[in-house]
Structures are given as C-alpha cells and as structure tokens.
Design a protein that fits this description.
The chain is an alpha/beta fold. β9 and β10 form a beta hairpin. The chain is elongated, with a radius of gyration of 17 Å. The strands form 3 sheets. Strands 5-2-6-7-1-8 form a 6-stranded parallel beta sheet, with helices on both faces. The structure holds zinc ion (ZN). The site of zinc ion has 9 residues, from α4.
C-alpha cells in the first residue's frame, strides 16, 4: 500500500512564475530518475494544445484536461512520482475532489498551479475547490507596477484599456491580463 500523499495548491496572479515553478519541480524529479505526469487545461492553447510553456521560451508536452476529464488511479502510469497541473483554476469541484483522493487514498502527490481570482475578482471554480481541499497552500508572489504585491488580475484590450465586463474566460481576441495590486484593481490606479 502506498503512503498517503498531499494535494498542493500554489496560486499566484499573472506572471507570478507558476509555470516556471511547475517545470522546475518536474525537472527536479526527473533529475533523480523519477517520472512526472503533467496536465494543462484544454482551454489554454497559447503554446499549442497540450503544451506547458512560459514566456521565457521553456516548454514541454502535457496531457490536457477539460470539464469531462476523469482522474482515477487507473489513469496514472505506474511509477509516476508526482502529478502536476498548470492552469488548475479551470478544474471543476468534482475533479479537485478526485485529485485529493488520488493523493490521500492512492499516494500520488498532486501539485496544482493556477490563478485564484478572475479579472472581476471572482474565484475560479478550481481555485475555490483547491482552497477548500488542499493539504498545503502557498502563494507565489509577484509585484504590481507600483511595487506592492499584485494579488489580482485585470483584463486590458490590445490598446491597454481596462476591461471591466465580459466572460470569465476570454479565448482568442486581444484581451490580455496584468497582475495588479488591490488598490489598482478597485480604482484603476495604484495608490500614490
Ligand atoms: Zn499597484
């Protein structure tokens, strides 16, 4: 019987280095001759479907998950030392429970990286579920333009104009996301 493992939730705003941290964990396991399983959301095709990538140009292939993906012990290849998730905010509540069971009942450590809140300050479903069930929670920090901690994400158009309304997930189009301090998030500008 495998020992109990943990479900980890490591969240941060845009550009907090989440994907880079994930790739670093994968590298450390593989350096020791142990294999990892990497998933990313099917919704994220910035680097091609099934690829986890960073703005620094490092990337590698990954399995993809959608709302219908199930996570059972049979889906985990024998010898897998760790299961890593990028864009974990897109997991459903039910999937997060499945992943917690994989860790606690089947001994596979599961490390999830993702955003906590959307551009309107609302929790993503996966983020809320991970905050509820994860055995260990860590914030990956990044800074706002003003130098304060950026814990929110704002959506801007191609011209950099703030977008306050819209769908939670905007696929395609020119919308971009910027990490922002709470003051900027609510007022549109940083506290002087
Ligand atoms: Zn700021």
């Amino acid at each position: 019987m495998r020992r109990m493992a943990k479900l980890f939730w490591r969240y941060g705003a845009m550009a907090a280095g989440k994907t880079l941290a994930l790739l670093g964990v994968a590298h450390n396991y593989e350096r020791l001759g142990r294999s990892v399983l990497i998933y990313t959301a099917r919704i994220d095709d910035r680097y091609g479907e099934g690829v986890v990538g960073t703005r620094l140009g490092i990337q590698r292939p990954a399995r993809t998950f959608g709302p219908d993906t199930r996570f059972s012990p049979q889906d985990v290849p024998p010898g897998t030392a760790c299961i890593l998730f990028d864009e974990a905010q897109f997991l459903t509540c039910e999937q997060v429970t499945e992943l917690h069971r994989l860790a606690v009942l089947h001994g596979f450590p599961v490390i999830c990286y993702g955003l906590r809140s959307d551009f309107q300050g609302k929790a993503f479903e996966g983020a809320a579920a991970l905050s509820t069930l994860a055995d260990q929670i860590e914030e990956l920090k990044t800074v706002c333009a003003c130098g304060r901690k950026a814990s929110f994400n704002i959506r801007v158009d191609a011209q950099g104009k703030r977008l306050w309304e819209g769908e939670q997930v905007s696929i395609g189009g020119d919308a971009q996301y910027i990490a922002a301090c709470p003051h900027q998030f609510y007022t549109g500008h940083c506290k002087p």
